Amino acid sequence: MAPKPSSVDGRTRSSVQIFIVVGLCLFFYILGAWQRSGFGKGDSIAMEITKSGSDCNIVSNLNFETHHGGEAETNDSESQSKILEPCDAQYTDYTPCQDQRRAMTFPRNNMIYRERHCPAEEEKLHCLIPAPKGYVTPFPWPKSRDYVPFANAPYKSLTVEKAVQNWIQYEGNVFRFPGGGTQFPQGADKYIDQLAAVIPIKDGTVRTALDTGCGVASWGAYLLSRNVLAMSFAPRDSHEAQVQFALERGVPAVIGVLGTIKLPYPSRAFDMAHCSRCLIPWGGNDGTYLMEVDRVLRPGGYWVLSGPPINWKTNYKSWQRPRDELEEEQRKIEDIAKLLCWEKKFEKGEIAIWQKRVNADSCPDRQDDSRDIFCKSPVSDDVWYEKMETCVTPYPSVESSDEVAGGKLKTFPSRLYDVPPRISSGSVPGISVEAYHEDNNKWKRHVKAYKKINKLIDTGRYRNIMDMNAGLGSFAAALESSKLWVMNVVPTIAEKNTLGAIFERGLIGIYHDWCEAFSTYPRTYDLIHAHGLFSLYKDKCNMEDILLEMDRILRPEGAVVFRDEVDVLVKVKKMIGGMRWDAKMVDHEDGPLVPEKVLIAVKQYWVVGGNNSTSH
């Protein structure tokens, strides 16, 4: 067991002092960088300390590599970092696995061409994605919900296409988001009020939501004030940059589509799913898309459909669609919902709401159905690149008719630290209830140490945060705040599949393989956390590719916290030396004898066509 700080010798106390001083220097560096970005309001005293660099020069002369595995023996020619050059300006908004040119070579049926199609090894870029000229740090939340700097996503097409729907407006050097949408031109708040009259949003029963075909994610943006986290997705299509706008606003979103591949989420993940004129053919493909929504919807969860074909009798003329076509479309949706054993709770105007039953025993009609509707393959959350199935995912078994299949959850925020049913039931092999509690305590300690290093973590400076190897979500739980949100990524090669438990805690996340690019635009995360990631992917794929992807999705002047074995971090530190990042290695908070170390990095500010940076 690692020694505790209270029982260590003078060498460890010295290490802790170094740890804190490095943190202060990085804090002042980041604070100064935030000021330079255009919207920061840093302390002028901090700026003076940053300029004078008196303390930081002392720190930089200290030997942090004393315990760092042989780095001192490396000669100069070997220790030189490979310099990675900027990519061409045309790649400022490059999304490797949703590249428009590559997409057009795939079939259009069932949206196959809008799915993930990643570049072959020889097509990968080995350069740094530049920020556009004039790029600035986004406004802090909650101002970012309503305003995005034009220079960060300079696309005006939506202001024309969606002008009458109150999506987005261009004003001077910013975009303004009035909170409207195609189905809620009077604003998302009033629309959510209508839903909350039927769905238990206010009391914390509904915490996680899925927004399919989200536009600029105003629904998810306005749910945040009600303590609901929505995972929004939309394809990269003719509505240029809608997901990019969402993330610039500080709202969780990914590039995605309902096509032929299963959604990258576990079964029974979301408390609510939503489609507001999302153009998904719910009645088509024998109900496959609704069956996929049913798979990711928790027992007792809600599905909201607003827009066509709901209320077709009144609106068919304004929609300029034939009555019989709309009538048939709604009939198919109603039939599939009945097959799924969803109960229709509400229909008024253009909004309809269904609720999924809490268990299979609540579905008497299903027992009389002779059709072979259930999926034959064992229920598995191994969904990465797996084809959607036209079948119904079975409920977990229950012992009584009123028991919630898979386990009943507490309301949020109580469920954040309550033991997830997947853990208490033993559904995640190798993780006991005791191990879950230990993991929470460990990450509370780690996050406390991170906050000593970087005092901006709690200030709202870092809004969009990613945990690249999330484990049980305890890093995100320790950070929980209305000022930020965390995308918990569970690698597809992780030893334990924990994403279902993360959702049960009231957090959101996604499956991903870090040998490929993430489904997001460049410059969409403020802070990235990578715990054990490079040890996990050792010999699986190229470390440089993963670091370049981190650089692509990290905002200029954003920060990265690596936590890994010392030998791994020495290699990482050498590599990022050629990436326009500034970095410092520090000991584990329990002292220098712990082989796990922490590497803190800050991405320099630079834009296309310039060599400007924030390096000192």
TrEMBL record:
InterPro entries, per database record: Put_SAM_MeTrfase, SAM-dependent_MTases_sf
Membrane topology: Single-pass type II membrane protein; Single-pass membrane protein
Membrane-spanning segments: 15-34
Family label: Belongs to the methyltransferase superfamily.
PANTHER family: METHYLTRANSFERASE PMT2-RELATED, SAM-DEPENDENT METHYLTRANSFERASE
Record key words, sorted: Glycoprotein, Golgi apparatus, Membrane, Methyltransferase, Signal-anchor, Transferase, Transmembrane, Transmembrane helix
Single GO BP term: methylation
Single Gene Ontology MF annotation: methyltransferase activity
Cellular localization per UniProt: Endomembrane system; Golgi apparatus membrane; Membrane
Gene Ontology CC annotation, any one: Golgi membrane
Protein's recorded name: Methyltransferase
UniProt enzyme class: transferase
EC number: 2.1.1.-
